[in-house]
Amino acid sequence: MPELPEVETIRVYLQAILPGRQVTAVHHLDGRMVKMGSWDSAGIAAHLPGLMVQSMERRGKYLLLRFRGNVWLVVHLGMSGRLVMAETDQPWKNHTHMVLEFSGGQELRLVDPRRFGRLGWFEAENPDAFLFLGPEPLGRSFTGRYLRSRLGNRTTAIKSLLLDQALVAGLGNIYADEALFKARIHPLTPGQDLSEDAVIRLTRAIRSVLREGIRHRGTSFSDYVDALGHPGENQEYLTVYGRAGRPCVRCKEPIRSIVIHQRTSHFCQHCQLP
Length: 274
Ligand SMILES: [Zn+2]
Description:
With 274 residues, the chain is of the alpha+beta class.
């Protein structure tokens, strides 16, 4: 599933080419993908043509096409969604659920075989008026003090807490596992049991693994590709995620995997202490 680094990689590319371009037509908009916002697919298809892109933004794992006039088209890629630019004469692939044709002759296409992605149309000055998310982990408000205050007396496993988008926006299974390994914290540790020192290590580790992920243009296991259709490279640099049974990069003990709240967690029993 695309997490912050993958979505940010897509955003950076689209930000370089879309601002100032106008939507000339909307094709193929699948009403089943419109799961939020103030218009259904017919409303979106009617309102988009003629709008000019002001900027391409991101909040957590959401991509935000900001149009002039405080209008936002919000895209969440779900499990398998891809948002790619293509020339208008390239044939549409199966499972294409939205095509935005732009002035200048290119198209932005949403392809999502499993349809866990979602779309929505919002009108507001700031996306925080309609997306209710915790702070950006690479932003200034995500501090050790903030995280400590939100962990409070929570008895839930820290791994599950990190996946709560209202606590911190943008982390998913891959980068949560990587951050916990880097901070040497066992994924089952109850939130309330993290020492002040551990919380500081964790905030630093989260920022570090996300920056690394962005630097390597995202992690591609099966579905993720960037807006040009290219896979990322961060899978080559992972320490625990997807490495069950292989030796820990620190201590050589085999990496273990367990299921915590229906999500598989990867960790080193020797290096990550409860
Ligand atoms: Zn280890």
